[in-house]
Amino acid sequence: MSLSPPTERIWWKEKIPTTELIWITIAFLWGLVMFFMMIYWHGAGEQNLSNEAYRISPANFTAKTQAMVDQYTVREESGYPVVHPPPGSDVYLIARLWQWWPILELEKDESYRLHISALDWQHGFSLQPVNINLQIHPGYEMVLTVTPDQLGDYGIVCNEFCGIGHHTMLGKMLVVE
Ligand code: CUA
Questions:
Q1: Residue 122 CA to ligand 1 centre (angstroms)
Q2: Which of 89, 93, 90, 91 minimizes the C-alpha distance to 102?
Q3: Which atom of ligand 1 is nearest to the CA of 163?
Q4: What 3-state DSSP class applies to 78?
């Protein structure tokens, strides 16, 4: 192998082979299909979107969460308070480096107003295995009306890269009778 220049001066101006053209066309059309499906699914795909968000300061959000934790903590799990708030109430979840705090314990078939906000920077709320996803920003709270209809332990993972401890940012939500 040598580092000599190409023999043709305009080396890049070649006819595109037919098979390559076909594949470029297929990929381009498929990209268009996926683009329009994204818009279609937004309306028709039964997405779990939060359509509510409000400005809130991290200090204010911390105070509300702390008040709920102080009032309704029922036990501890590996250093995290497990909070069992009354059905129908406002419940709070903090995202911060690198935890989801506290552990919420909700009752099956009851509704709650779930508020989620970040205290430092952007995190991704991903509730598994039901796959509900939200972006969580500091300065804003996302508010969802949730009615859990299946018992179990749900995992919360952070799916937005947030630094060196991102992969350890795991939380939990419990649904009980
Ligand atoms: Cu928080 Cu990644």
A1: 7
A2: 93
A3: 2
A4: coil
Question: Would the CB of 107 count as within 6 Å of ligand 1?
Answer: no
Point out the ligand 1 atom lying closest to the alpha carbon of residue 161.
Answer: 2
Q: Is the CB of 158 under 6 A from ligand 1?
A: yes
User: What pLDDT digit, counting tens, does each position of 106-142 carry?
Assistant: 999 999 999 999 999 999 999 998 888 899 999 999 9
Q: What is the DSSP code string of 5-72?
A: PPSSSSTT--PPPHHHHHHHHHHHHHHHHHHHHHHHHHHHS------EEEE--HHHHHHHHHHHHHHH
Assess whether the C-beta atom of 123 lies below 6 angstroms from ligand 1.
yes
Indicate which atom in ligand 1 lies nearest the CA of residue 160. 2
Task: Read off the pLDDT band of 1 (50, 70, 90).
Answer: low
Distance 171 CA to ligand 1 centre (A): 11
Atom of ligand 1 nearest to the CA of 123: 1
Confidence of residue 5 (pLDDT cuts 50, 70, 90): confident
Edge-to-edge strand list for the sheet holding 52-55 = 52-55, 140-146, 112-118, 90-96, 99-101
